[in-house]
Amino acid sequence: MIKLFSWMGLLAKVALMENLNMNQKKADYPIVLLGAIAAGGKVTTANPRYKANELSYQLIDSGASVLIAHPEASIEANITFYRILLFSDKEIRGYKPYRSILNNDCEIEPVYYTPEEVKTTTAFIPYSSATVGVPKGIELTHTNIVANLAQLDYVDLKLGPDSIIMGILVCCLKEFLVFLNNYSENYSLIFYGVTVVVLPNFNLETYCESIQKYKINHLYATPSIVLKLVSDPLVQKYDLSSVNTILSGAAPLNDELSKQFYEKFKISIWDGYRSVGVLIPNVKVKILSHDGHELGYNEPGELWANEPNIMKLMSSKKTDFLTLETFYTLMNKEYLWFKKFYCPERSVNT
To answer: Which pLDDT score is estimated for 309?
Structure first.
């Protein structure tokens, strides 16, 4: 809490108390993330594999005014030198680590919102994978996050102080990554008091060694990781018996692969990617025809959803704002894969 309030004091010091966007990445970022939103700011997170030009696009599009990460993107994004801070223990080319300027004397009180304000005030702006055109900012309000937390609590994953969870930092932006890129998961882990082990990237040997060493019992993974665990003989060298729960996301999990995993490890995988299953609390859905009529059983149509955790809006400075009220349409989307990323067909053709 001392560091949290120190960070809020830092935000006040650089006069960014309103309309603050902050870009950050690394394992200790909760201090920055929680401090920023408590101080009345907004946070936009970026894929850790982004190059400088890719990151600069998001910085410009989101209107970020403080950068925690890549100094190289600052010139193009026109962010003032002293507003660029590093997740590092050392100063690099004049850029200071954010911890070096934490000052308890600058502590301030958190910003408090009314029940109506939390429904409309943006807390986070992650960016989509952009099926069509450039990536879009997804504005999530404080209510979106809190509602999703309550919904996650309904899913009994048996999390508690004895839980030890492991995830990969670079699994996938915003999709289903433990702790670092999924805000609701981030808060839920804090809420339950679990221990979190984070690997900077995926290496099968390190992955299995960590499970054995730290007695991991909950895993967040992607289908590609599940495939490695099933097919690579290296896995047999390690004791993975501590694992009792594995959640898969970021891409569809093949049914056959799920069965193979169960046959080998006797653990059922929770697939968090699909839009089929029992609805969680406060979610309403209906099936509509293309002309807007509600359909009955076994009739093909569009799935429409209404829930308190649905985004405030989707936007980009290069496109019109996309706002949807009441029910949101969940369209079928066809993706192509390139270097482990979803790519719109348009990008591949060009």
So the answer is: 84
In this prediction, residue 171 has a pLDDT band, given cuts at 50, 70 and 90, of very low
- Phi and psi dihedrals of 182, rounded to 5? -120, 115
Residue 130 belongs to some domain of the structure: no
CB distance 66 to 16 below 8 Å = yes
Q: Are both 89 and 11 inside the same structural domain?
A: yes
Q: What does the DSSP 8-state code read for residue 92?
A: B
Task: Give phi and psi for 246, each to the nearest 5.
Answer: -135, 130
| Burial (Cβ within 10 Å: 0-12, 13-18, ≥19) of residue 1 | exposed
Kindly give the pairing relationship between strand 313-315 and strand 245-248.
unpaired
Counting the structural domains of the chain, the total is 3
Same domain, 64 and 166: no
Residue 328 forms beta bridges with which residues? 305
Q: Which two tokens stand for residue 181?
A: 């890129």
Strand order, beta sheet including 195-199? 195-199, 164-168, 218-221, 245-248, 269-271
In 63-203, where does DSSP find H-type helix? 74-77, 117-120, 142-154, 183-192
Alpha helices (H) in the chain, listed in sequence order:
2-13, 30-38, 52-62, 74-77, 117-120, 142-154, 183-192, 204-214, 223-231, 255-265, 345-349
Region class of 316: left (phi > 0), else alpha (psi between -120 and 50), else beta: beta
Q: pLDDT (tens digit, 9 = 90+) per residue, 91-128?
A: 766 667 766 666 556 666 778 899 999 999 999 888 87
The boundaries of the domain holding residue 62 are 2-112
